[in-house]
């Protein structure tokens, strides 16, 4: 569907994509908890049973930089709130996602140190450190630029498309890192001494959880990019202006690079809003 669709169907299509992402987010958390609690004996940050400390890692890494980050990204279009409130929700959910990620990485380092296992020897751990570091940098840059103290309207306008694209890339990186983590853990467990059956219930559950996490990543990206101009339907009162704005994109209406399109349109509001409000306030 290209830009000529009716606003109501655009809104319905976007709501459906967002709903799919919410359902997959809940499923991912339920599955990873089922695995770590039912099959692996539970979670603990302090225990003589060291694998319980490890179990905190997958749960918090799925909850933080994936589920909460995904909800934060979707919050701009899924919540029926004023813009400022949505911005605070976006910021707070990302803060919670980052805290979960940092605590999850702390847990796996603690498990390694207390079990005499070397640190940072795997591709998963290298990409994982990069992901959490980039997530922290993105949060700090977003906070300083759009919240406090806030950059000038021109800087906000110029940086917003980059913020959106880098934000999605970091989210995708987190999903990829989790895939490596699930694969690595299952491969360890299928070797000595556990010799987990290759087609057993636990192996299937781990692989299935990884598939759900992957689908969640796809759903969040599809709900965020302006693939068919559905973003236009989000704010019907602004539809005409956003439509003409998107038409001005080099790729035309919609298209794969469209995550930047809404931002560019909204960037115009960065400058328009303070004028409308009659003060020199910040837009983002
Ligand atoms: C965004 C998601 C994730 C990130 C950023 C991440 C990050 C990390 C980091 C930095 C380490 C290194 C710890 C050390 O060297 O002491 C690590 C280890 C590990 N992670 Fe993850 N992780 C993620 C998700 C997962 C998931 C979902 C699993 C699934 C079980 C997992 C399984 C493991 C395993 C088995 C190790 C120990 C072996 C190794 O160091 O590679 N990770 N993770
Ligand atoms: C690591 C943390 C963050 C990530 C991964 C991230 C990611 C994103 C993404 C993907 C978008 C595009 C959403 C869309 O087009 O619907 C976005 C938009 C935005 N983000 Fe963030 N963000 C982060 C932190 C922050 C922070 C701390 C702020 C400060 C308030 C912020 C402010 C904004 C604003 C103002 C928008 C524009 C919303 C719009 O499209 O209308 N972000 N962010």
TrEMBL record:
GO CC annotation terms, alphabetical: membrane
Region (Disordered) location: 233-284
Cofactors, names only: heme b
Transmembrane region(s): 19-40, 60-79, 91-109, 129-148, 160-183, 203-225
Biased composition (Basic and acidic residues): 233-245, 265-275
Keyword terms of this UniProt record: Electron transport, Heme, Iron, Membrane, Metal-binding, Oxidoreductase, Transmembrane, Transmembrane helix, Transport
Matching Pfam families: Cytochrom_B561
Main location: membrane
Membrane topology qualifier: Multi-pass membrane protein
GO molecular function, one term: metal ion binding
Subcellular location: Membrane
PANTHER family tied to this protein: CYTOCHROME B561-RELATED, OS08G0101700 PROTEIN
Function recorded in the entry: Two-heme-containing cytochrome. Catalyzes ascorbate-dependent trans-membrane electron transfer by utilizing a concerted H(+)/e(-) transfer mechanism.
Record's protein name: Uncharacterized protein
Source species: Sorghum bicolor (Sorghum)
């Amino acid at each position: 569907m290209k830009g000529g669709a009716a606003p109501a169907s655009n809104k319905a299509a976007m709501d459906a994509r967002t709903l799919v992402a919410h359902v997959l987010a809940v499923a991912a958390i339920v599955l990873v908890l089922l695995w770590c609690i039912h099959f692996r004996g539970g979670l603990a940050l302090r225990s003589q049973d060291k694998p319980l400390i490890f179990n905190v890692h997958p749960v918090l890494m799925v909850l933080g930089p994936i589920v909460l980050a995904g909800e934060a990204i979707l919050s701009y279009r899924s919540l029926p709130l004023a813009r400022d409130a949505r911005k605070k929700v976006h910021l707070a959910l990302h803060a919670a996602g980052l805290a979960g990620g940092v605590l999850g990485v702390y847990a796996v380092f603690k498990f390694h140190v207390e079990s005499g296992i070397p640190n940072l020897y795997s591709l998963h751990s290298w990409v994982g450190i990069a992901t959490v570091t980039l997530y922290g940098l993105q949060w700090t840059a977003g906070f300083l630029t759009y919240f406090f103290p806030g950059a000038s309207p021109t800087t906000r306008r110029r940086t917003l498309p980059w913020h959106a694209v880098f934000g999605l890339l970091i989210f995708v990186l987190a999903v990829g890192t989790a895939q490596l983590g699930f694969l690595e853990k299952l491969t360890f467990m299928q070797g000595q001494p556990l010799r987990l059956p290759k087609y057993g219930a636990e192996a299937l559950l781990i692989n299935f959880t990884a598939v759900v996490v992957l689908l969640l990543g796809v759903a969040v990206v599809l709900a965020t990019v302006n693939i068919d101009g559905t973003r236009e339907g989000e704010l019907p009162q602004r539809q005409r202006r956003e439509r003409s704005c998107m038409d001005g994109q080099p790729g035309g209406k919609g298209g794969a690079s469209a995550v930047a399109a809404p931002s560019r349109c909204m960037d115009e509001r960065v400058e328009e809003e303070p004028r409308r409000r009659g003060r020199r306030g910040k837009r983002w």
